[in-house]
Amino acid sequence: MEGSNHVSATNNAHPDLEVLRGGVAIVTGGASGIGLALIEKSLEHGLHCVIADIEESAIERVIGELSVKADEHDVQLLGVRTDVSSAEDVDSLSEQIDGKFSGKPISLLCCNAGVGAGGSVLGARDVDWEFVLGVNLMGAVFCLRKFVPKMLQQDAPGSVMATSSQDGLCAASGVYGVSKHACVALMEAVHAEVLGRISVHVLCPNAVATNIVTSERNRPVRFGGVEGDSSNRVHPAANRVAERFKRYGMPPSRAAGMVFDAIQSGVFYILAEAEDDEGYVRLEAETRMNAILNGTRPYRPRSALLTKIFSGE
Q: N or C: which end of the chain has fewer CB within 10 A?
């Protein structure tokens, strides 16, 4: 199989996306934001879709909204309530996929689930580190470990991506930034290990119109969350920031489109820049790398868009 041109991703790319048609797309965090946009793009490319998400009600809503579109493309949907920070949940996800889509190849794995939480490195509690690294790093690790070996064994082309952040490329800030640097490093390691047999990509967006800043609503009890209604778990200030993310951030569909463009072109680092902040993610990466090469201190250039979102200026 290693010598087969059919299953390899030459130059980390599948120039003809039709080779993925009829396979299965697994998207974690798939019921909202970038994940939902990846599901919608996958449907358009003729992929059966697995919506893995921690919010069961959101999964049900999405399946209701997309069932007609799935029928139009002659594909099926599967929704599975999944806490990716739990290896047992990921095992259960795999079992349900095997039951629903037996005999169909996994053509796309999107390790997209993420939380924007944790606070400062010096101020974060153990449960904050466990929550953020549990989802943003170990959630991807569990999915990669479970599904990539299957993808390498199947006689079909495939692609795998993870959603990191601009925070994975620039001078890190807080627990979140640490987790996103780890996510980039994780995908670099996967790229080296699969030896071109599947394509590998990491998405590094700046401001996207998602709910990531209200991630506390989904914090599990074992990571310091509370039982019961999640509506009161998010600080009002975070809700205001979330509103500005929705107002000023790039549409998730734009980020998802960049992922499929990268699968086609072979781009590994997907610098998903908002139209209102074009060039900023590249500037952050260049600034960090220049500091490394020139022996200067880490510095994060200012973004007018992010300032507007986080401070309301």
A: C
Residue 77 · residue 31 · CB < 8 Å? no
Fill in the amino acid letter for 239.
N
> Which of the four pLDDT bands, split at 50, 70 and 90, describes residue 234?
low
Q: Which of 51, 43, 4 is nearest to 23 (CA)?
A: 43
CA–CA separation, 253 and 237 (whole Å): 26
Distance CA 96, CA 210 (A): 27
CA distances from 279 to 156, 251, 284 (A): 36, 17, 9
Q: What DSSP letter does each residue of 38-106 carry, written as one string?
A: HHHHHHHTT-EEEEEES-HHHHHHHHHHHHHHHHHTT--EEEEE--TT-HHHHHHHHHHHHHHSTT--E
Please state the rounded mean pLDDT for residues 94-113.
Answer: 97
Q: For the whole model, what pTM was predicted?
A: 0.94
